[in-house]
Structure prediction request, 228 residues.
Amino acid sequence: MKKLLVLSLLAIVGAAQLRASDANTPRGDLVVRVESCEAILREFQASPSTAIPPQVWQKARGLIILNQFKAGLVFGVKTGYGILMVKKPSGRWSLPVLIDASEASFGLQLGAKSVETVFILTDDATPRLLFSNQFNIGVDAKAVAGPSAVAYENDARPTFVAPVLAYSRTVGLYAGATVKGGRVSRNDAANFNLYATSYTMPELLYSDWVSAPAEVQPLIAYVQQLSP
Prediction:
């Protein structure tokens, strides 16, 4: 919990500059984003109330982890970042590629809220929606709340057929009317910087042309452990 708090605070400091300056963002700041997403996933898995059960991980073909922040008075904008990973035909998980996550909101708004979400993608087509720059989770790809580990432990035998299974939690207080977009978009500038390459998202996800730097290896290894 302490590590996630520190990483989240560091990430919030630069959240307003996510889109404009990622080509020039210090690489260490981009590494913090990956590490924050890893910390979110580990904390989800540490609690039975939020853990994604093995039965779901067996179906996983892709993974999105988002760390979003909402704050405002009268008008608010949710901004944030995340990572996308895919499971290759070989069964090995890809590099984590950085993505943007933004959501406009309008209405009376008080307080602030951090939203942490893990999406399990159960088909091979959904991750490719990001190749055209952005997609709206829940619109371009049907999303439902994923079954919890507790449900399986209670022998509820939940079924899931949606291409996107969502697991989410919020931190902080927030009140007001909102219009949610749920958009995620590719961030080639950040990935060029993070991986010191000109390869784009499809190549980073599906090829073996870029070796995983040390900073992202713990996340890859952990996801591989969850979904071998």
Q: What stands out?
A: Residues 27-46 form the longest helix (20 residues). Residues 4-20, 174-181 have pLDDT under 50 and may be disordered. DSSP finds seven helices and nine strands in the chain.
